[in-house]
Design brief:
This protein has 52 residues and is mostly helical. The protein contains 1 helix and no strands.
Length: 52
């Protein structure tokens, strides 16, 4: 996906894009993880709410 062919004159732009893509991937993974956690915890939250 990412190919660095020798010393590029616009290497800074490529690295900036790499950093942006990595940050977006990390943020997306965290959001997906949190969504899965909330979906998994919904039944427990409903039971806890009914008990109170």
């Amino acid at each position: 996906m990412v190919r660095r062919a020798g010393p590029l004159p616009h290497g800074t732009v490529v690295t900036m894009l790499d950093v942006l893509m990595n940050t977006a991937a990390v943020i997306g993974g965290v959001v997906l993880f949190l969504m899965l956690l909330t979906v998994a915890a919904l039944p427990f939250l409903q039971e806890w709410g009914e008990q109170r």
